């Protein structure tokens, strides 16, 4: 028993440490996305508004992942025993953990990942990455989670009534593995994973893996950037391999005695696999896109700072004209309009005013003349005018 308590506490401390590190990453991602959206709203990064369109969905993904990680802390035996002394409260907490974790948070995380991945294949004319798309996506995530949540409620609360726990035969004890969400170990209640709930989660993950594989193949064919291709490979691979491993580990958790070292190790590995897949998904779909947009903006600022004054003035005037022309449209549409600094080549306008040009040529000609000889300056000026006229005439013939 002391070894069991020590192993449980050790895995609990490691779990809490990993969750804290994950929360640091999650808060960093939320800050970066919100900061970028605020700058876009202030028209500082207006050209990047379209690419930060799914910012609400990205924040929703991070928040749901945080809720999932908090539920993993709630199931820990040593923490649950210190917070709730009542066995009834501990049993109810285990049931709520199964409902929230396997019925909502975990499916919501992967559904949001799929929607964000699928959005890259949609055409812009279909309204993808707009504010309306964010609302529809979050609504669809809740809608698709309702069936699995209702089935988990039925299996968690109504399932045990189909089995008579008063029987002492081995068959009844084996059937308890399919429905029981908690087991008494000493003076504590250890949360377990009912086999029926795990099977239901496995069916959901099987359908999700099939769809992710289908979407991933289409995205692989359309991605031309090597770095984006590597990120997509990591994301799709983590979903395809992590979800089956997690379901298998949760299924095998019914074999050892709950609370001992083997059980704690299996449950911890299942948590670690899920955490790894979630971190990869958040990095690929939330952190890296925001970081790329910030890097693009910084590069753009460097180019503008190194630009001559005339180029900066002409480019800014073009941008202001386009913004005033399209103010009635969505701010996200400005990013790909003609005249956006980010998506067009800066062309310098080398057509100065004719009078200013003649004046400059005249001043230069008289400056080259000897002192006290105005006729020499006038002669140099006429010679340069004739040369420029010849050059302009030759350029006109070439253009014709």
TrEMBL record:
The keyword Heme applies. InterPro entries: Cyt_c-like_dom, Cyt_c-like_dom_sf, UCP031277. The chain crosses the membrane at residues 12-34, 55-76, 96-117, 138-155, 195-220, 232-255, 261-288. This is Cytochrome c domain-containing protein. Residues 372-400 form the Cytochrome c domain. One of its GO terms (molecular function) is metal ion binding. Keywords: Heme, Iron, Membrane, Metal-binding, Transmembrane, Transmembrane helix. SUPFAM superfamilies: Cytochrome c. PROSITE patterns: CYTC. It comes from Ensete ventricosum. It comes from the Eukaryota.
């Amino acid at each position: 028993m002391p070894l069991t308590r020590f192993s449980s506490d050790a895995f609990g401390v490691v779990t809490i440490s990993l969750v804290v590190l994950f929360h640091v990453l999650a808060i960093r991602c939320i800050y970066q996305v919100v900061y970028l959206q605020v700058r876009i709203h202030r028209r500082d990064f207006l050209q990047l508004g379209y690419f930060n369109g799914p910012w609400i969905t990205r924040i929703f993904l991070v928040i749901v992942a945080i809720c999932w990680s908090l539920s993993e802390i709630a199931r820990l035996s040593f923490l649950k025993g210190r917070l709730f002394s009542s066995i009834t409260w501990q049993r109810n907490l285990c049931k709520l953990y199964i409902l929230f974790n396997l019925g909502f948070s975990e499916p919501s995380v992967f559904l949001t990942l799929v929607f964000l991945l699928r959005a890259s294949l949609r055409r812009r004319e279909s309204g993808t990455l707009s504010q309306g798309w964010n609302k529809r996506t979050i609504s669809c995530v809740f809608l698709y989670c309702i069936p699995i949540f209702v089935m988990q409620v039925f299996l968690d609360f109504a399932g045990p009534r189909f089995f008579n726990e008063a029987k002492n035969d081995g068959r009844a004890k084996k059937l308890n593995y399919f429905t029981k969400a908690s087991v008494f170990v000493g003076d504590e209640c250890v949360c377990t994973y009912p086999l029926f709930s795990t099977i239901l989660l496995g069916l959901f993950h099987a359908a999700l893996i099939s769809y992710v594989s289908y979407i991933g193949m289409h995205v692989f064919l359309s991605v031309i950037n090597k770095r984006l291709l590597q990120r997509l490979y990591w994301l799709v691979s983590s979903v395809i391999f992590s979800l089956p491993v997690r379901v298998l580990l949760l299924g095998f958790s019914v074999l050892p005695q709950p609370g001992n070292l083997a059980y704690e190790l299996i449950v911890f590995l299942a948590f670690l696999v899920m955490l790894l897949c979630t971190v990869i998904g958040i990095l690929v779909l939330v952190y890296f896109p925001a970081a790329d947009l910030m890097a693009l903006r910084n590069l753009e600022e460097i180019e503008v700072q190194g630009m001559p004054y005339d180029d900066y003035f002409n480019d800014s005037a073009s941008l202001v004209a386009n913004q005033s022309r399209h103010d009635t449209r969505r701010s996200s549409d400005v990013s790909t309009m003609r005249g956006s600094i980010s998506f067009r080549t800066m062309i310098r306008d080398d057509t100065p005013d004719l009078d200013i040009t003649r004046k400059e040529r005249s001043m230069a000609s008289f400056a080259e003349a000897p002192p006290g000889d105005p006729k020499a300056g006038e002669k140099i000026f006429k010679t340069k005018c004739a040369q420029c006229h010849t050059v302009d005439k030759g350029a006109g013939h070439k253009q014709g």
